Amino acid sequence: MRNYKFRLYPNLDQEYKLQNNLNVCKWVYNKFVEQAQKSFLSRNDMNYILTELKQSESWLYQYHSKMLQMVSTQLEGTEKALIELNKKGYKTGQLRFARYNEFRTFTYNQSGFKLNNNKLFLSKIGDIRIKKHRDTPDNIKQVIVTKSKSGKWHACITCELVKMNLPKINFLKSVGIDVGIKSFAYDSDNHSTPNPLNLKKMLKPLVRVQRKVSRRKKGSNNRLKAIQHLQRIHERIVNRRNDFQHKLSSIYANHYDVVFVEDLRIQNMMKNHRLAQSIMDSSWSLFLQKLEYKCKLFVEVPTRNTTMDCSRCGNKVPKSLAVRIHRCDKCNLVIDRDYNASINILQKGLKIFSQNKLPQELRKVTPVEISKRSMKQEANTFRRW
Ligand SMILES: [Zn+2]
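# zinc ion complex -> structure
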């Protein structure tokens, strides 16, 4: 499956209908929540509730019926997420009702849509102008319509791709990546990508507008305007972050077959409650998500001490966060600390595969060969220092 996201340009009448669709889905969603707060709802339960609802509320028939059914997928997702959080030991409250403007997507599944060159037809709504900036396969499975925080409409088109063969994996094209604050990503081929600092730049206006919102009278028009402004800033931050992360992850996915990263859950044990820090955390995990779905082989290496261990001799060199250079007394290795960490990640990752298990037909080169080669190559790289 592959998703394509296109901007929609509905006219006033259509926008009204789209918003109406959202409102109805939200209403159904909240009806489900009401029941789900009492006991866990399966999808069957929800479909049953929906059929009953339709009997008492006949106006529901005006809406695309598959769309109403798909609301259950959303609630199912929320329920699963809650259970997942509980398992990890987080405190979770009850399932919450969706508020206006929090509920921003509805789904047409299997039927009720048709995509042409510059129009998207949605049943019960009509032909909406769409900016189709690239071709899609014919085999469209579903259309998800979303409204952004600032009120822009998009369509996510899910297409089924033709069956593809498993990719051959060349372990000679492996890389380890260390994510950090100074460089957003530092890899074992000694490329570093600086942190874009978008957020820091945006944090000031964000705080300023936030203050504006809280000063204005609740329910007033001016407060509404300030809120809209705030949401535009939020959206811009998200757009910039996504743009940066998509470009960087695409570079790695195109250049390498195997990408190793450190398992961030282990780092997260040293939790830090500063705002900027927590945003960085989420930023990294979003980046890793993108890498994961783009790369041929993506492995989170469960490992500790990647910054401390010397990547050449294994000697332990403890250092505080402020020390940017790794200096080993034993083998005289002197390199950037993040570079050292990324080599450690690569080596530990390759070790996992040299001990096991990847089916032979997937491999072009075995990990054992590559570890020998990478040692030699590293020796060369180090000579430059
Ligand atoms: Zn050393």
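# post-check
Confidence is low (pLDDT under 50) at residues 376-385.
Residues 310, 312-313, 315, 328, 330-331, 333 surround zinc ion (CB under 6 Å).
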